[in-house]
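Workshop exercise sheet. Pairs work together: one partner reads the sequence aloud, the other fills in the structure field after running the prediction. Swap roles for the next sheet.
Pair: D.N. / O.F.
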Amino acid sequence: MVTDLFTTLEQKLELVLTQITGLKEANTALRQSLIEKEQALKEAQAELAKVSREREMVRERIDKILNRLKIIDTGESA
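Structure field:
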């Protein structure tokens, strides 16, 4: 009878230890995934900043061209 209790206890303990090991492995995998996602986010933010700068440069160049055209148009109208 006492041995049955110990056997049951050992089985339950083994189950808990197996679950702990599985959870630790899952936790490690999730941490690695988080690191990868954070890195991807940083790269995407850097790319977005680059595109935003390029867009602003294009906008400025277009404004300069439009201003030149206004000057030419104004000069021809006068």
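Discussion prompt: The first helix runs from residue 2 to 77. What would you look at next?
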